[in-house]
């Protein structure tokens, strides 16, 4: 064996040894043996706030299971995406390529036109509401009314509404709903106003909170059943006409004012009405929804990765990649050993990597030793 070849084998052997050491340190850091350490950004999730004006009593719970694999609860969730025909080719591809893949069976698109291609790529999960394609109050209330009515035709326990500019963190949503019993009256969402909305209805001032539809919100089946006699079968449009406000406000009016059921504020829902850049990257895992706006000054999350031309919303590649890395890889590795979840993914990969790495080191060591003996 030539001197040059020997030198090359020695350098390769050293490189493999360094790679093995780096891998060992990495898996030690993320906790290959399990334990109760939280992953970066995985810290804790607020459980419930009984009064939306009370910020001081937040019970927090850590994520225990990162991905909704064979999760019975997720099967009981009905996720609606409100959209319109003009957004089918602009906003919906972001959803379909990303979080929709984690909740194909649970997610339905409510639109205002027939679209054979959209129906094909979503497995037929498209409902033409036959509502107006405008962004008027009546058109919005019409679509929300259809969403709620279709939900009641299913046997699902949870109704979760989002807009077509939302990114849903499906694992986090799964964890949130585990905290509440759907046989109770639950109205989960985030307000976009600092004070309760005050309107004049029937010559009287009425004050109530409402969850912003653009951030997403969830309703328990028990609550939607109570709403049905008041707002079901298209009656939500009449309510919207009476108070002169759009769909999400009308839902809040029915729940908070007419049914006297309080909104449970969950701050991890987000709409484009707030600055997305203020969401810290190390807390991404906890967030339930993200949003964006591409108007004069783009309002998007601040995350490294592809540039604005490749990923203008920052959701298609950048947020998806970030959540996948921090939950699928790191989160699953940390969850091993304590409850066994995630073992199907990370432990075999780790074992294979270590096996191949050390086998190559052993092979080249023997090769070098054999050459030295000769």
Task: Explain this structure.
By secondary structure, this protein is of the alpha/beta class. It is built from ten helices and 13 strands. The chain has helices spanning 3-30, 92-97, 116-121, 137-153, 170-177, 221-231, 235-243, 247-258, 315-335, 346-373, and strands at residues 45-46, 60-61, 77-82, 107-111, 126-128, 158-163, 167-168, 187-189, 197-201, 204-208, 217-220, 264-265, 289-290. A seven-stranded mixed β-sheet has the order 5-4-3-6-11-8-12. It has a two-stranded antiparallel ribbon with strand order 1-2. A two-stranded antiparallel ribbon has the order 7-13. Helix 1 packs antiparallel against helix 10 and helix 4 crosses helix 6 (221-231). 38% of the residues are buried.
Short description:
With 374 residues, the chain is of the alpha/beta class. It contains 10 helices and 13 strands. Helices cover 39% and strands 13% of the residues.
Question: Which tags fit this structure?
Answer:
alpha/beta; elongated; seven-stranded mixed beta sheet; 374 residues; 13% strand; two-stranded antiparallel ribbon
Summarize the biggest pleated sheet. 7 strands, mixed
Strand order of the largest sheet: 5-4-3-6-11-8-12
Straight-line distance between termini: 10 Å
Q: Please compute the radius of gyration using only Cα atoms.
A: 25 Å
Order of helices and strands: HEEEHEHEHEEHEEEEHHHEEHH
Model regions low in confidence, pLDDT < 50 over at least 5 residues: 25-70, 325-351
Class inferred from helices and paired strands: alpha/beta
Q: Classify the beta-strand content into a percent band.
A: 5-15%
- In helices, the fraction of residues equals 25-40%
- In one word, what is the shape? elongated
Number of helices: 10
The average pLDDT value, as a whole number, equals: 75
- Count of beta strands: 13
């Amino acid at each position: 064996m030539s001197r040059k070849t020997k030198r090359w084998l020695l350098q390769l052997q050293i490189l493999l040894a360094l790679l093995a050491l780096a891998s060992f340190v990495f898996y030690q850091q993320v906790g290959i043996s399990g334990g109760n350490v939280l992953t970066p950004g995985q810290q804790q999730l607020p459980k419930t706030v009984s009064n939306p004006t009370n910020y001081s009593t937040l019970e927090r719970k850590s994520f225990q299971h990162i991905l909704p694999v064979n999760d019975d609860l997720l099967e009981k969730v009905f996720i609606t995406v409100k959209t319109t025909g003009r957004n089918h080719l602009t906003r919906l591809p972001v959803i379909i390529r990303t979080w929709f893949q984690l909740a194909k069976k649970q997610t339905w698109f409510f639109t205002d036109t027939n679209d054979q291609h959209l129906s094909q790529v979503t497995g037929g999960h498209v409902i033409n509401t036959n509502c107006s394609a405008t962004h008027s109050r009546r058109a919005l209330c019409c679509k929300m009314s259809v969403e709620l009515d279709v939900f009641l035709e299913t046997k699902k326990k949870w109704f979760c509404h989002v807009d077509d500019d939302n990114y849903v963190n499906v694992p986090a949503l799964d964890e949130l709903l585990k905290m509440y019993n759907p046989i109770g009256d639950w109205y989960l969402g985030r307000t976009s106003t600092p004070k309760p909305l005050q309107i004049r209805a029937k010559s009287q001032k009425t004050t109530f909170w409402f969850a912003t539809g653009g951030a997403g919100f969830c309703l328990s089946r028990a609550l939607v059943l109570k709403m049905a006699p008041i707002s079901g079968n298209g009656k939500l449009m009449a309510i919207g006409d009476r108070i002169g406000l759009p769909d999400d406000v009308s839902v809040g009016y029915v729940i908070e004012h007419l049914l006297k059921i309080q909104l449970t504020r969950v701050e991890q829902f987000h709409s484009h009405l707030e600055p997305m850049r203020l969401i810290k990257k190390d807390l991404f895992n906890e967030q339930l929804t993200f949003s964006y706006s591409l108007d004069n000054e783009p309002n998007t999350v601040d995350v490294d990765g592809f540039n604005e031309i490749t990923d203008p919303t920052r959701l298609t590649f950048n947020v998806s990649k970030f959540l996948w890395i921090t939950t699928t890889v790191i989160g699953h590795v940390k969850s091993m050993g304590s409850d066994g979840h995630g073992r199907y993914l990370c432990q075999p990969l780790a074992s294979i990597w270590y096996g191949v790495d050390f086998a190559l080191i052993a092979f080249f060591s023997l090769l070098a030793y054999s050459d030295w003996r000769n």
